Amino acid sequence: MAKQLQAIRGMHDILPDKSALWQYLEDSIRGVLDGYGYREIRTPILEQTELFSRSIGEVTDIVEKEMYTFKDRNGDSLTLRPECTAGCVRAGIEHGLFHNQIQRIWYRGHMFRHERPQKGRYRQFHQIGAEAFGLPGPDIDLEMILMTHRFWKALGLDGLELQINTLGTSDERAGYREQLVDYFSRNQETLDKESVRRAETNPLRILDSKNPDMQEMIAGAPALLDYLGEISRAHFEQLCGGLDAAGVSYVINPRLVRGLDYYARTVFEWVTTRLGAQGTVCAGGRYDGLVEQLGGRTTPAVGFAMGVERLVSLLEERLSELPLATPHAYMVLMGQEAGSHGPILSEQLRDQVPGLRLITHCGGGSFKSQFKKADRSGAAYALALGEDELTRGVVTVKSLRTKEEQREMTQQDLVIFLQSVI
Ligand code: ATP
Ligand code: MG
Asked: Taking all residues of the chain, what is their mean pLDDT, rounded to a whole number?
């Protein structure tokens, strides 16, 4: 036998058994996005490497060690997107979407990061995210957070905690940075090797460290909130006020700095304790400097991205309660005549009952084996058609999930019945 090939480490197949769950999640989220007037954008999975090194920042986990970067046949350096904000901004500049316009957009798709695979952390994973361009105030930050809050309602997920913080402006951060460097140099002995290096290149990122031995030291570090100017402070207070008024609870986490360099002012995460170390299911914030940094005109922007695999794991906990798209009916066919009439009847039913999910049996076999397949398909009803039914012009309808009596129906009654169950 020929050698079998396997998927690349950290990259997973989503098999048909699982895809209904993914679709349920994607459809629910899409419905909410529609409800807020966000429109979808689809950007390429491959971009020039420079797009990411210029936007995400040279001194970040992603750019330093996680990107899938390679030279193509022309010798150009390309990278599989590790996130989609940079691509959205690139596309927006390229197509003039930011000129005197407000844009509310969303995206979904694969992202790639060469990380150590573990539960909730993969090398190919999926994000759904949204971005709003052209709005500088806290009103849109609030809208974004309220929208994410509504996602959880739509999906029936509870127990997620909203953490928010503000990173101020880059000037405010510069003043704070000095205090932070000073604090870290007084705590040199607690810093790990990477943090010693980052104390010089990007000290704020040390606050984001996952190293358990450093958490106590990090908790004692000075907080940026104390270094904010008037406008940043007011921005943050208005956001908090909006959340209070909407009845959405939150905690202010001064250690929340986010992994990417382009954030300013508002940052937020939704966190759960149910997924172990990989507890952040949604992360976002304001990134007013990015459009300019990538060659566009100064454009305020705010956005977030959700880790779909992590949300799927949470949904799996309540799989049995979810309205997943299983077939409504499975048509069982006995004998040659039924075998040829069945597909025609199925077509007519599909015409007459829009939205009907019907599997027509193929491949023959005994009644028993066909009913087994019907049962395994997850269908609610079996529609049986044999010689006897054919001569009498009826179909036998049998519930596969409840103890309902089986019934014979004419095609006309069957249509009415199917309309009532879809
Ligand atoms: P972390 O601190 O967990 O590495 P991050 O700051 O790198 O997260 P973002 O770049 O903000 O993550 O991505 C947004 C969301 O995408 C994360 O909150 C998470 O839910 C998801 N995500 C990020 N990296 C991965 C991955 N390798 N596998 C699965 N999901 C991921
Ligand atoms: Mg990461």
From this structure: 94
Asked whether residue 399 falls in the same domain as residue 359, the answer is yes
Distance between Cα 208 and ligand 2 center (Å): 10
Q: Are residues 240 and 343 in the same domain?
A: no
65 assigned to some structural domain:
yes
By the 8 A CB rule, do 62 and 115 touch?
Answer: no
pTM of the model: 0.90
- Residue among 125, 208, 286 to mutate when testing ligand 1 (max atoms within 8 A of CB): 125
pLDDT in tens, 351-400: 999 999 999 999 999 999 999 999 999 999 999 999 999 999 999 999 99
Closest CA to 132 of 170, 167, 97: 97
Assigned token pair, 331: 């048509």
Q: Answer yes or no: is 416 within a domain.
A: yes
Rounded alpha-carbon distances, angstroms, from residue 88 to 108, 195, 223, 265: 11, 31, 32, 20
Same domain, 266 and 135: yes
Domain that residue 119 falls in: 16-168+228-319
Ligand lying nearest the CA atom of residue 111: 1
pLDDT of 120 > 80? The answer is yes
CA angle in degrees (0–180, nearest 5) for 114-310-159? 145
More confident residue, 266 or 171: 266
The residue whose CA is least distant from atom 28 of ligand 1 is 121
- Give yes or no: residues 138 and 23 share one domain: yes
